[in-house]
Amino acid sequence: MKLIIGLGNPTEQYIKNRHNLGSMVIDQLAETWGVHFQSHQRLKSELLVTMRDKQTVVLAKPQTYMNDSGKAVQKIKSFYKLENDDIWVVSDDLDLNFGIIRTRVGGGSGGHNGLKDIIENIGEDFVRIRCGIKNPELQTISADKFVLQDFSKTEQDKLNDIISHTIVTIENALQDGMTADSKALL
Fold it and tell me: What is the chain written as a DSSP string?
């Protein structure tokens, strides 16, 4: 069983923010697979369970705010009795240039508060699928304000490609196993 989590903030006002890129990927993945989320208040998440490549896959979107993502992840992990190497977290990454996708197992939070809270709740040895949002041309404000802005028009034009490539990365990893990798898309 694999648990694939898309990080984001749960309310409508954040839906198109850079910080919600992980959630956007998971939404598109569910749509691509033709499956639908259900709210699970006890697990503080929207979840769906499906079969892909002969294995059970749980897609999850924590319904906590970003800084409390680890609490939801810990509840889901305990409920399904998962090990950390079966947990894949999709998130935005302000240290990676826009259009780069990087996968790796373990490591620190890189200043990402959602990842930091997950590490505090389950440890650091889970898989990260990080999608770069760094854009020096637009980043003239503090990091915390930048990540809570909607993507620019230019970024939006490229966003579908980034999400599609991230989905391909996930689907390939489900078939062949996850490997540390970095892909420049743009």
Answer: -EEEEE----SGGGTTBGGGHHHHHHHHHHHHHT---EEEGGGTEEEEEEEETTEEEEEEEE-S-GGGHHHHHHHHHHHHT--GGGEEEEEEEEEEETTEEEEEES---TT-HHHHHHHHHH-S-SEEEEEEEE-TTT--S-HHHHHTSBPPHHHHHHHHHHHHHHHHHHHHHHHH----EEEE--
